[in-house]
Design a protein that fits this description.
Blueprint: H1 10-15, H2 19-44, H3 67-77, H4 87-90
Length: 94
């Protein structure tokens, strides 16, 4: 959170709440904005029926992998992988 230099305007320091309260308030407000953003995205652009993963602000942990592997995981999560054509992936008993 950015700090406010009250040395330039001394009377401003009497009007501001204590820094600890401002930090907590900022954190709570930021969390509420993120939650509202996800809710708005979910309502405006609902995920497809077959996609079970909810929208998130932060990238999934597998995005730290190489591009090819991360792409394959995204395809499998969306059930659009080329591996879906392989019979061993469709039949659990195979």
């Amino acid at each position: 959170m950015p700090t406010i230099n009250t040395d330039l305007v001394p009377e401003l320091s009497a009007l501001l709440p204590p820094p600890s309260l401002m930090t907590r308030t900022y954190s709570v407000l930021k969390k509420r904005v993120m939650e509202a953003r996800i809710e708005h995205w979910s309502q405006r652009f609902p995920p497809l029926a077959y996609y079970y993963h909810s929208p998130a602000i932060h990238p999934p942990p597998f995005m730290g992998l190489n591009k090819f592997t991360a792409g394959q995981i995204h395809q499998m999560r969306a059930r659009k992988s080329y591996l879906a054509a392989h019979p061993s992936w469709r039949a659990p008993e195979a």
